[in-house]
Amino acid sequence: MKKFTKLAAHAAPLPVANIDTDQIIPKQFLSTVERTGLSRGLFFDMRFLPDGSPNPEFVLNKPAFAGAKILIAGPNFGCGSSREHAPWALLDYGIECVISASFADIFYNNCFKNGVLPLVLDAGQVDALINQANGQNARFEIDLAAQTLTGPDGKIYHFEIDPGRKKSLLEGLDEIGQSLMQQDQIAEHEHKRKLMTPWLG
Q1: Distances in Å between the alpha carbon of 193 and those of 5, 184, 190?
Q2: Residue 119, Cα to own-chain centre: how many angstroms?
Q3: How far is residue 199's CA from residue 138's CA, in Å, rounded to a whole number?
Q4: For labelling alongside 16, which of 3, 73, 122, 192 has CA 20 to 30 A away?
Q5: Residue 165 half-sphere exposure, CB side, CA atoms within 13 Å?
Q6: Tens of pLDDT, residues 1-49
């Protein structure tokens, strides 16, 4: 998993409440277990018109927001089913951080497992940042170690994050990576188990 330490980028505003995981990545894109290629389905029904052409009104299709790495969304982002493909699709598209006043619990947890920072701020602060996200000239800076977000106007916002989850992002360790850090202890335990219970093999 890629480390998340600092991020300086522009943001795409999506001030819609209750965006569920089926809107983030519709069910027809869930047949794969690969984490790459899912950007094609990200916000598919919003990004594309019925004839398959890009919807010019959708924020990620507007030239001013091309290459945005931050998404500023309405409250309760990621509600609905527990599909892990949702953070996969965001990351594959290039979105490394989602800012919202609240997230659905399972989606929130899945973000940390996949290297996406779900950043929670007060609703009023989110609204202020949405107003500032006006294209490529509006740069946002996130410092995870300091737990700060600096808006385009220079105002600094402090955010809270669980220390363990913060550490996993800073070090780029998912749950498997964290387990592998304990290889010596695991090997020692297995050795002792074989000595104590040789009949188990």
Answers
A1: 39, 14, 5
A2: 9
A3: 65
A4: 3
A5: 16
A6: 889 999 999 999 999 999 999 999 999 998 887 778 999 999 999 999 9
In sign, the C-alpha dihedral spanning 87, 92, 57, 124 is: positive
pTM of the prediction? 0.86
Cα angle 82, 85, 86 (rounded to 5 degrees) comes to 75
pLDDT tens for 150-167 read 999 999 999 999 999 999
Q: How far is CA 46 from the centre of its chain?
A: 19
- How many whole angstroms separate alpha carbon 144 and alpha carbon 117? 9
- Please report where in the chains the tokens 């000239």 appear, as a residue: 137
Structure tokens at 56: 């010019």
Sheet with 70-73: list strands edge to edge: 117-120, 97-100, 70-73, 6-14, 139-143, 148-150, 156-158
Q: Which fold has domain 6-200?
A: Aconitase; domain 4 (3.20.19)
